[in-house]
């Protein structure tokens, strides 16, 4: 028996959501790996660089309220489009940093906004909802503490 197109589309959506969440969350989760390299290359203190991660985590929590309201009003398609745009812009611009304030802006603000937006989609009212919510909550429940 062949699966209906709707079921196939649900798995495609779940896979796309996982790819977006993984892409937006992995650089933030791996920040500790880059910390010594950034400190050595730019000559900044580890504490000053860590402010970018602290800002990202703090704004990620605070953005949940705003992103939830936007998701309720405009739907998950808008949120995921915003996520991809912010993550792409933030991580692309992070490759051009020359000063500490740029690190704070591109990683602390832009990347944090993207990460929170990608994990704050409303629950779909179907069986696929558990798949989508499992994929979207993976970074916050299964990452190693830093």
A few lines on this structure:
With 146 residues, the chain is mainly α. It is built from six helices and no strands.
Can you describe what's shown?
The chain has 146 residues and is an all-alpha fold. It has one domain (5-142). Helix content is 81%, strand content 0%. It contains six helices and no strands. The protein has helices at 5-29, 31-42, 46-74, 76-94, 100-118, 129-142. Helix 1 (5-29) packs antiparallel against helix 5 and helix 3 (46-74) packs antiparallel against helix 4 (76-94). The protein is elongated, with a radius of gyration of 17 Å.
Rg measurement, Å: 17 Å
Question: What structural class do you assign from the helix and strand content?
Answer: mainly alpha
Encode the helix/strand succession as letters: HHHHHH
**Average of pLDDT:** 75
Number of strands: 0
Q: How are the SSEs placed, and which strands pair?
A:
Elements: H1 5-29, H2 31-42, H3 46-74, H4 76-94, H5 100-118, H6 129-142
Question: What structural keywords apply?
Answer:
146 residues, mainly alpha, 6 helices, disordered C terminus
């Amino acid at each position: 028996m062949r699966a209906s197109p709707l079921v196939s589309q649900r798995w495609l959506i779940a896979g796309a959501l996982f790819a977006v969440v993984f892409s937006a969350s992995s650089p933030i989760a791996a920040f500790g790996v880059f910390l010594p390299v950034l400190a050595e290359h730019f000559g900044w203190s580890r504490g000053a660089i860590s402010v970018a991660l602290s800002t990202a985590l703090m704004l990620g929590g605070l953005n949940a309220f705003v992103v939830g309201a936007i998701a309720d009003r405009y739907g998950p398609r808008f949120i995921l489009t915003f996520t991809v745009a912010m993550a792409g812009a933030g991580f692309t611009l992070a490759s051009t940093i020359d000063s500490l304030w740029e690190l704070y802006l591109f990683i602390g603000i832009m990347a944090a906004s993207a990460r929170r937006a990608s994990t704050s989609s409303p629950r779909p009212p179907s069986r696929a909802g558990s798949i989508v919510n499992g994929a979207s909550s993976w970074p916050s429940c299964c990452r190693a503490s830093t």
